[in-house]
Amino acid sequence: MKIIAISGMRGSGKTTLIRELIARSVAAGQTCALIVNEDGEASYDTDFLQRHGVAAEFLRGG
Fold first, then answer.
1. Torsion angle, CA of 28/31/37/41, rounded to 10 degrees?
2. C-alpha dihedral (29, 20, 5, 57), degrees to nearest 10
3. Any domain includes 41
4. pLDDT tens-digit profile of 8-53?
């Protein structure tokens, strides 16, 4: 199992990177999961996650 932690400032491309990693992993037949620790009001694209069969857990202030 590989675990990748991604962090960075707002607008730095974290979500774009995560979406690309998920798309490539699923295309390669790998299983993905996502833990989102978000303090802001922005929500994650749950439609994208569902289309790619990715389980997501959303945490606050963790």
1. 70
2. -70
3. yes
4. 888 899 889 999 999 999 999 999 998 888 765 556 778 888 888 9
DSSP 10-61: TTSSHHHHHHHHHHHHHHTT---EEEEE--SS----HHHHHHTT-EEEEES-
What is the distance between the alpha carbons of residues 30 and 15, in angstroms, rounded to a whole number? 19
Tell me whether residue 22 is in a domain: yes
The residue type of 31 is T
Stated pTM of the model: 0.75
The answer to whether the CB of 8 falls within 8 A of the CB of 14 is yes
Domains of the chain: total: 1
Q: Which residues span the domain enclosing 45?
A: 14-59
